[in-house]
Amino acid sequence: MTALEKTSYGYIKEGKVFRKGFLEYPDLAIGDVKGTEEESITFYENRFDLAEKQVNTVSEKIESNTNKGSFLMKVLHLKETLHQFDAIGDFEKLYSQLGSLETELNAYVEANRHKNLQIKTALLEELKTVAKSSEWKTASLAVKEIQSKWTKTGAVAEEQKEAIEGAYNELIKFFYDSRAAFYADLDKMMAEKEEDYKAFIKKAEALKEIDAISELKAAIRTHTEEWKALPRIKPAKHNVYWQEFQVVIKAALNKARKIEKTKKKASTKDNLKAKQEIIEQLTVANQEIAPNFQLSQVQKAWKAIGPVDKKVSNELYEKFLFLTDSISEKQFLNSLVKKKSKKDSSEDELKKLRIRLLRGLMDRDISELRTFEENLGKFSMAKGLDGLLDKKLSQQKRKVEVKKGILQELKKQVIKS
Questions:
Q1: pLDDT tens digit sequence for 294-342
Q2: Does one domain contain both 286 and 381?
Q3: pLDDT at 2
Q4: What are the φ and ψ backbone dihedral angles of 19, each rounded to 5 degrees?
Q5: DSSP string spanning 31-59?
Q6: Is the dihedral of CA 226, 230, 235, 237 positive or negative?
Q7: Same domain, 292 and 260
Q8: Closest CA to 248 of 210, 315, 201
Q9: Which of 83, 140, 228, 363 is the most buried (most CB within 10 A)?
Q10: What distance in Å separates the CA atoms of residue 40 and residue 394, rounded to the nearest whole number?
Q11: The pTM is what?
Q12: Could you list the residue range(s) of the whole structural domain that residue 41 is in?
């Protein structure tokens, strides 16, 4: 049996292997004879398995996949190219199979496009209602959801595409144009309301002409009530005008307080003398290692004294704080010594215990001070916070300095003994 007789799908002619024509496709030279004629024919018959596998694979994917329409182009591509494949076999059967797949997919795509048309028609009806709404926040969310669903929905039939897409785009444009016009009108209205705020600030400038503190505070309360009655505007703008109002109030209060301080200046000398006397009492009491002194009464008396000249006020207050802190630390240290000491402890033992306890307290304060200084840069400097942090830092430093001073006193006592 010759190679030509072996198969009805191919033959050999003039040293070349031919695949026989089928359907509208003519005979095709697919390669040269290599080895015997029979071996060459067998080689290309075996290659037909590859062509058959391509068709079977796409058929299986269509069967198992829910989105079958996505394989239509693959089927059409195989129909256009498979007849050129260099193999010998029943290509007519493969083309029949591809034809069936194409028919199936076309029906599937047509059904899907009909379904897509129904979905988009329903979305259009929903959009018609939403596009007319003036509840802009709610409507905007609804329109975005419709847009998302529309995008995810597949194509409709070509002859219906222009009409339905045109209606959709027209409604979307109508909604966003209407919303833009609304917010433009709102901005215009807000601008008109801002004029009321500008007029209010201008009127509030008159507060700076009031010198008496009590009268000024009453006028500020009245203005604040008027502020509350102003029309609502955007929060950011509202805050700007509120800050401007606060600047006017602050300037008015500062001016009135300066005038009040001028009136009180005559009494500052008596106040200074009274505070100096308290400093002297504290200085005497602080000379004791375990002072028996009622700090609370002195602190209350200090607060009751009126203001003194600014040039000496800070220095005097620092002395007061240092002395009261020192006396308080000594009293606290003395209570610790009483708790920690034994009943039969000698005076020397008590002195050494006092030093040891004080060093422990001082080491803790120094550690806290270092930690505070290291973390100082990490704090957010909101308005007013920087002043609080500076005050806290000063307190911490003073605690350390006070304990260092007491420690020096205790060491001198030990040396004398």
A1: 888 988 999 988 888 888 888 898 998 999 888 888 888 888 988 888 8
A2: yes
A3: 44
A4: -95, 135
A5: EE--SSHHHHHHHHHHHHHHHHHHHHHHH
A6: negative
A7: no
A8: 201
A9: 83
A10: 101
A11: 0.40
A12: 3-89
